[in-house]
Design brief:
Chain lengths: 177, 101
């Protein structure tokens, strides 16, 4: 079978899963299910990254998004003790939001198809960039952005701890006495 | 494969995220929708990275930076949501009107 046909079938299958899961994320009335449907979309995105010859980004996606972000979201949902399955999680602007999203999609897809119809992606893997190339470029041309991202993550870590920690008046008293 | 497939899929996911941000009331669900939008942007970056393969890997590096910044955003965002829950006993954004003029 032709490799292009295989890629196309793979794309349509994964794309359908991603869109259905994303729609469930924004419409389901169970917050835990919303976080779990997000895993479907994120894993589909990782599969598309592999199709686009970016294995390293695909694994980073699986580790960081599926492994860390979704777990963090589930913890957030549990800690805020959201009433599961009884409250209404949508606000009154739902029809307006649907119209805005539909118009935005129409305009964006029209512009993109108009600009890029006829442009073909070459997805044969012979001269694909390797993870080695990514490492070499990150630590040469992009070393400053890389260091700044490190500082940003450290700042976010300390900031999250400082914001979320409970103030303990007893501890202050012990220091004062 | 036409690059338009990937671009239209990513714009569809982005618009689903926009709908989620506008229509949801729970702050954590809004954060989930923002993750959808960031992911759509990443698909776009990697599609163009594959298209412009002779330019090297900057598209993939930008996608990695977006993933790192999204992780930081989720950490701080959830800390704020938990603090709001501790002070107000719910996380409905419609009821957070204290600083509204």
């Amino acid at each position: 079978m032709n490799a292009d046909v295989v890629r196309e079938v793979f794309f349509w299958g994964v794309g359908a899963i991603m869109v259905i899961a994303a729609l469930r994320v924004v419409t389901t009335q169970n917050v835990v299910h919303a976080a779990l449907y997000l895993v479907g979309t994120l894993m589909g995105a990782a599969a598309l990254y592999v199709l686009l010859l970016a294995e390293f980004v695909a694994w980073a996606q699986v580790l960081i998004y599926v492994g860390a972000v979704v777990v963090l979201m589930l913890f957030g949902l549990m800690l805020t003790r959201a009433p599961i399955g009884k409250a209404n999680y949508d606000n009154s602007q739902r029809p307006l939001a649907a119209v805005v999203a539909a118009v935005l999609f129409g305009v964006m897809s029209w512009i993109l198809i108009d600009a890029f119809s006829g442009t073909e992606l070459e997805l044969a893997g012979e001269n694909a960039p390797r993870t080695q190339d990514i490492g070499a470029v990150i630590f040469s041309s992009y070393v400053w952005p890389f260091e700044i991202v490190s500082v940003l993550l450290l700042a976010a870590l300390i900031g999250a701890v400082m914001i979320a920690r409970r103030d303990e008046p007893e501890a202050d008293k012990e220091v004062g006495s | 494969m036409p690059i338009a497939y990937f671009l239209v899929l990513s714009s569809l996911l982005f618009c689903i995220g926009v709908y989620g941000v506008l229509a949801r009331q729970n702050a954590v669900l809004i954060l989930l929708s923002i993750e959808l939008m960031l992911n759509a942007v990443n698909i776009n970056l990697l599609a163009f990275s594959a298209h412009l393969a002779e330019a090297g890997v900057p598209g993939q590096i930008f996608a990695l930076f977006v993933i790192a910044v999204a992780a930081a955003e989720v950490g701080v965002g959830l800390a704020i949501v938990i603090l709001i829950f501790r002070n107000r006993q719910n996380v409905d954004v419609d009821e957070m009107s204290l600083m509204k003029w």
